[in-house]
Design a protein that fits this description.
The complex is a heterodimer of chains A (about 500) and B (about 500). Chain A is an alpha/beta fold and about 500 residues long. In chain A, about 40% of the residues lie in helices and about 15% in strands. Chain A has helices at about 10-15, 25-40, 50-65, 105-115, 160-170, 185-190, 225-235, 280-295, 305-325, 345-355, 355-370, 375-400, 420-425, 425-430, 435-440, 470-485; strands at about 45, 75-80, 115-120, 175-180, 195, 215-220, 265-270, 300, 405, 445-450, 460-465. The longest helix of chain A is centred in the C-terminal third of the chain and has 23 residues, at about 375-400. Helix content of chain B is about 40%, strand content about 20%. The radius of gyration of chain B is 30 Å and the shape is elongated. The chains are: A alpha/beta (about 500), B alpha+beta (about 500).
Chain lengths: ~500, ~500
């Protein structure tokens, strides 16, 4: 039975449709795997056994009648950031203790409408703020990957660490995730999985706990490129409840897979060759270039001159928006309330107890940069930088580049409770150096596994596309996947 | 904003102090609740008087992950109001977040418009007066801007010994904040401004203007200076909720500031509250305690954009505004400025009048509406919306006078009957025998009798024709007021041989 959990979404889809397996069998296989291994990984913060079985039964009924949606009977894990009706939705924060919404986020509602089965809620950095999943109120998540010959526990990346770990350790067929500065792509790269952050506006943000509204975008983490295409198709939609969602038809992304890339222009941005980048990242990048060249793509050197300002600007814009978005967690209406002697004291006590260090740090930064007298120097300046970053990409795409290839992360997964990272938050922030620009420009970006480092840990490459051209990303990522092969951790648990 | 002084000091508006005259400078920020079925960014109802927390959506309660969606009707209402204020309509405007913590502000921020409001500069012409000569003076007051924003909920502190309750029914309701330029120079002008603004939004149907329900409230900025001097330091009196209180607050505040300045003190810029029970203003918070609202563009909302065609479409269906209506009543119905001003002062009165005047003599209709109807309403303490006499009924009364069926005097009686008992005036005239006697024979008989009974008076009248009036009175009395006075007059003069 445990073999069932190794099926990709597309494989499971075939077996379900041909009735080789039932959704209940598949779901039970996952629930069994979760029950056995979640203590090891801490990937799930809530497992919805009964709901999963009920949904699986309903799917089996539909499948038996030859009906069902694109994801009928496929068991998924849901990042704790998504509002799920009647189910644990806390953004892995203490401040949302006990919160179970009366509503379903548009993304998860879309998935359920297409027949997917919910296994539970996945661990994440608190309010999606972090790159290691260590800021979660529910504790760190363990990466199923380990360096060769070592028992040291590694982080799965963040903030969608639970999603990436669950997918790579076969605790779900695919997972929802969100990406504000790299929170889908970095964990995907750290766990040998595929993660796509779609164009801003492609996926509705309604019902997803907000971190930084102008940057947040949901996407899938899956075991291969095809699965990512299948999931994104179901997740994406225009939504009248999110006026920043865009009314464009959702293409059949899966159809893009296998299309030749001959003649495609692939841009290689020189600014992504950063100081102190390990040699093996450069080697990986060169491999990727070679694979695409072999497949007939034209490789062009490009320049994105404002790249170096992206990370500092991001750490102004994102905290600024977060400081305001998180103001609603005040102890008045839901979640944690720590009593105080008056209303201000209650706010202070509640927020002091409810938010973790990283969240507090970002609220402080955000509050500071929006303050009278600092707004122009920080927030306004960062918005100007953002416009320039956007223009960098527009110029390159206008010059005929179809897709941009970069490394996904500057390193492989690092250790849990890494002293370097813990002592210097900026070191942690540097994890997102290759990914934040994409959020700042609102573009789609995909991380695809491309190889292993010297210690046998997965490394990923990133492809960046034109707005709403996710198809080219799937098409190109699939070429890399074909050349590089798939990467799975050795099962030690 | 740059303060530009548009007025020259006017001695009749100055107030005397121990050190000479002072000039009051007033600017108003009026919050007007937009008339709309749903809130500014959610579908929850805006109905007044619902059970606490009955009109609250997930967005209004700021549940995690909820997003605002602009209610287009509120945008249209803001544009209509802007047009009514002859203001610049901005084709692109931006919603910002104004951040502060309060239990009745669930999001922790109010969505408002800070740097780029939907409506820019405009103007309102107010009428101050009448003075002792019965004259009105028109003054133009500049509008700085109008922007859309969310209202907050309500905190209730007196229902529980240690806890406060929060009612979110108002949370997220659309408000228009209409900011004037500091162009007003007296409490009367400020009152006239709020009155006129209320009239305009009521004409437009963009705000019901009910200040007692909180649909309109004003923040009043007051400073004083020596006439024509530099602007002084201002104090802002928050949330004044009646026109009378606006006047009282300004009077009090101006005198308070003058007293401080004349004592050699200086005014602290601060926010104050008006206490209607004591008739005074009290300090609420100083400039140092002012919030830093950390405004920034709301990333959940795209900039609000529309084209001129959209504005034109709304302009096309705009109702006639009070100033235009007044001009029309004067020019086409021949009403006096005074009468026209009264009739247009409230939309409900104007609507009533226009129904009465339709197809009838405008001046006669105006007299009846102003003198009789408004007089009676005033005496009874009733609104025109609840007038016991409908426009149709009053119109019938006017018709009966006009066609000579009843005299003006009888009409007053008839009006009173209709007011008290209701009914069709024409039928009442029939059933109660109030019809004017036009039968010359009957009148002649009465005239003859009166002359015969008063030979000495008849003699006097022949010598002194003005005495004829006495006979008219007697005949009218004898006929129970039903005789046509003109016919009586003519007959008496003929019988007595008075030639004019």
């Amino acid at each position: 039975m445990s073999d069932l959990t190794k099926l990709t979404i597309s494989e499971a889809r075939e077996k379900l449709r041909s009735k080789d397996i039932s959704s209940v069998e598949l779901t039970d296989a996952y629930l069994g795997a979760i029950d056995a291994a979640n203590q090891t990984f801490n990937a799930y913060v809530a497992v919805t056994h009964d709901k999963a079985r009920d949904m699986a039964k309903a799917s089996d009924y539909k499948l038996a009648n030859g009906e069902g949606g694109a994801l009928e009977g496929i068991p998924l894990g849901i990042k704790d950031l998504f509002g799920t009706e009647g189910v644990h939705t806390q953004a892995c924060s203490h401040v949302l203790d006990g919160f179970k919404p009366r509503y379903e986020s548009t993304v998860t509602a879309n998935l359920w409408a297409d027949g997917a089965v919910m296994l539970g809620k996945l661990n994440m950095d608190e309010f999606a703020m972090g790159s290691s999943n260590e800021t979660s109120y529910y504790g760190a998540v363990v990466n199923p990957w380990r360096a060769g010959g070592s028992n040291r526990q590694l982080v799965p990346g963040g903030s969608s660490g639970g999603s990436a770990a669950a997918v790579s350790s076969w605790l779900c067929a695919g997972a929802t995730a969100t990406d504000t500065g790299g929170s889908i792509r970095q964990p995907a790269a750290f766990t040998g999985t595929v993660g796509i952050k779609p164009t801003y506006g492609r996926v509705s943000r309604w019902g997803v706990v907000a971190f930084a509204s102008s940057l947040d975008q949901a996407g899938p983490i899956t075991r291969d490129v095809r699965d990512a295409a299948i999931m994104l198709k179901s997740m994406a939609s225009v939504d009248p409840k999110d006026t920043t969602s865009v009314d464009l038809p959702v293409p059949d992304y899966e159809a893009a897979i296998g299309r030749p890339i001959k003649g495609m222009k692939v841009g290689i941005p020189k600014e992504y060759r950063v100081d102190g980048m390990p040699e093996e990242i450069e080697v990986l990048w060169q491999k990727g270039i070679a694979w695409l060249k072999d497949a007939g793509a034209e490789i062009v050197d490009i320049s994105l001159p404002h790249t170096k300002y992206a990370l500092p600007a991001y750490y102004i814009v994102a905290p600024a928006e977060a400081s305001s978005n998180l103001a609603r967690y005040d102890g008045v209406r839901y979640g944690l309330r720590v009593p105080g002697k008056d209303i201000t004291d209650m706010y202070e006590q509640t927020r002091a107890a409810g938010f973790g260090r990283e969240v507090k740090r970002r609220i402080m930064i955000g509050t500071y940069v929006l303050s009278a007298g600092y707004y122009d120097a920080y927030y306004l300046q960062a918005q100007k930088v953002r416009t320039l970053i956007k223009k960098d990409f527009e110029d390159v795409f206008a010059a005929g580049v179809d897709v941009i290839l970069t490394p996904a992360t500057p390193s492989a997964a690092f250790g849990i409770a890494d002293q370097d990272m813990a002592s210097d938050p900026v070191k942690m922030y540097l994890n997102d150096i290759f990914t934040v620009t994409v959020n700042m420009a609102g573009l789609p970006g995909i991380a695809v596994p491309a190889g292993l480092d010297a210690h046998g840990l997965p490394l990923g490459l990133q492809l960046i596309g034109r707005p709403f051209d996710e198809e080219t990303l799937f098409q190109t990522a699939h070429v890399i996947e074909q050349a590089a092969g798939r990467f799975e951790p050795e099962k030690w648990w | 904003m740059t303060l530009i002084d548009t007025r020259t000091p006017d001695p009749k508006r100055l107030i005397p102090g121990a050190t000479g005259d002072w000039e009051i400078i007033i600017g108003l920020e009026v919050h007007a609740q937009v008339t709309s079925n749903a809130k500014l960014f959610s579908g929850a109802s805006t109905s007044f008087g619902a059970e606490p927390n009955a009109n609250v959506s997930l967005v209004d309660a700021a549940m995690p992950g909820m997003l605002p969606v602009i209610n287009e009707e509120c945008v249209k209402q803001a544009i209509r109001t802007g047009l009514g204020l002859k203001a610049q309509i901005n084709h692109k405007s931006v919603f910002d977040r104004k951040n502060y913590f309060y239990p009745d502000l669930p999001q922790g921020y109010q969505i408002s418009q800070f740097k780029q409001p939907i409506v820019g500069e405009g103007k309102i012409t107010i009428s101050v007066g009448p003075d002792r000569k019965g004259e009105f003076e028109d003054v133009e007051i500049g509008i700085e801007r109008l922007h859309l924003e969310q209202d907050a909920g309500k905190s209730i502190h007196d229902q529980h010994p240690t806890m406060s309750y929060v009612d979110l029914n108002r949370s997220g309701v659309a408000l228009m904040e209409i900011v004037s330029k500091p162009d007003m120079r007296s409490a009367d002008e400020a009152k006239a401004y709020v009155t006129k603004l209320r009239t305009i939004v009521r004409y437009l149907g963009t705000c019901d203007g009910n200040m007692d329900e909180g649909s309109m409230r004003a923040d009043v900025n007051v400073s004083v200076r020596k006439p024509g001097g530099e602007f002084g330091t201002r104090c802002e009196i928050k949330n004044v909720n009646s026109i009378r209180f606006v006047g009282q607050a300004i009077e009090y505040e101006a005198r308070r500031q003058i007293a401080i300045l004349e004592d050699g003190g200086k005014i602290d810029q601060e926010t104050r509250l008006f206490d209607p029970n004591k008739g005074e203003t009290r300090s609420m918070r100083s400039k140092e305690e002012a919030h830093d609202y950390r405004y920034f563009p709301d990333p959940d909302l795209l900039p609000l954009e529309f084209d001129q065609a959209y504005v034109d479409e709304l302009a096309k269906d705009l109702p006639e505004l009070p100033d235009d209506k007044k001009a029309r009543l004067i020019s086409s119905l021949g009403l006096s400025v005074y009468d026209a001003s009264i009739l247009v002062s409230e939309k409900a009165i104007a609507d009533y009048f226009e129904k009465v005047a339709a197809g009838r003599d405008g001046k006669l209709a105006a007299n009846w509406v102003i003198n009789d109807l408004l007089g009676a309403l005033n005496k009874a303490g009733k609104d025109i919306e609840n007038a016991p006499v409908s426009p149709d009924q009053l119109g019938a009364v006017v018709d009966l006078i006009r066609e000579g069926t009843i005299s003006g005097k009888i009409a007053k009686d008839l009006f009173e009957i209709v007011w008290n008992e209701g009914g069709d005036p024409r039928a009442l005239v029939e059933s109660r025998g109030m019809k004017q006697v036009t039968d010359t024979g009957a009148i002649e008989k009465a005239v003859d009798e009166v002359i015969a009974a008063n030979p000495d008076k008849a003699e006097q009248a022949r010598a002194k024709p003005s005495m004829a009036g006495w006979f008219v009175g007697q005949v009218m009395k004898a006929t129970g007021g039903k005789a046509n006075p003109q016919a009586v007059n003519d007959l008496i003069k003929a019988k007595l041989g008075i030639v004019e």
